[in-house]
Design brief:
Blueprint lengths: L1 H17 L9 H19 L7 E6 L3 E8 L20 H10 L3 E6 L6 E8 L1
Antiparallel strand pairs: 1-2, 2-4, 3-4
């Protein structure tokens, strides 16, 4: 699990740098923490059905978006983690940071119903 998180963090830092987003930008550290939590959850909870985790990046002039995808069908209730009724899997941290930064979080299921992506969009 640790190596997956390390690789994602390093890759994300490289992607942001290539897109001209400084490592000192106030969004970078929270985005790295959000990604780390999402990848940790995928590795911890979905590995049996989904040995691969994919991270997708997108950016606009004022937005950085990313998704963590796995092939496990369970879709966690993102907003129950904010109200304290979640499963304590790190999603509370993800949602607190995302909403605190003025961002959004959505889960998009795969067309076949056997996987999902959790998309985070953060304003730059």
């Amino acid at each position: 699990m640790g190596s997956a998180v390390r690789i994602v963090r390093e890759t994300t830092e490289q992607v942001l740098a290539e897109w001209g987003i400084s490592g000192r930008h106030p969004l970078v550290d929270p985005a790295l923490l959000i990604l780390s939590e999402l990848v940790t959850n995928s590795v911890r909870h979905a590995a049996g059905m989904s040995p691969n985790v994919t991270v997708i990046y997108a950016a606009g002039s004022d937005t950085f978006a990313f998704a963590v995808h796995d092939r496990h069908p369970h879709k966690p209730a993102l907003f129950s983690t904010v109200t304290g009724t979640g499963d304590g899997s790190g999603l509370g941290t993800v949602m607190e940071l995302t909403l605190g930064l003025g961002g959004t979080a959505v889960i998009r299921g795969d067309a076949d119903g056997k996987g999902k992506s959790i998309w985070i969009t953060l304003p730059l």
